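Box 3.1 A note on notation
Throughout this textbook, protein chains are presented in two layers. The first layer is the amino acid sequence; the second is a token string describing backbone geometry. Keep the layers aligned when reading.
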Amino acid sequence: MQPELEAHIQRAVGRAKKHLMQNQKRSWARSVACWNDMKDSLEDAIKIGGNLLASEGNIVEPCDDEEQEIINRANKIEAHLWFDVYRWAIENDRFSARERKLVSNIYISVHRGKKFRKVNQAEGALGLMEKTRL
């Protein structure tokens, strides 16, 4: 776990513990009013940044200019072109079933507005596009 995220969690736990200790009655801690008050007291807490909420798989790795150019080239390919490649591969019995599925997944992702963020993904996509030229 990232140290900054752990610090956020520790502060929230401290605030929650302090809130629950204000009234020692067990019925208070079980009441809706208690939890609504706690929710209100935590709303002014510092918001957790998206970079701390991303899983390790979603963190964008820093890359050099050459790698960024590869990613940019892959991201310039529009969704309709991926769909055309997928249709071409089926109609002409090209690519393995795995590669056709990958092209289909790329089409869906690009159509939904997702971008390549890792150089290995971008290289794989560009490699598939290159195979259509052979």
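Helices lie at 3-21, 26-30, 32-42, 50-53, 65-75, 79-91, 97-111, 119-131. DSSP finds eight helices and no strands in the chain.
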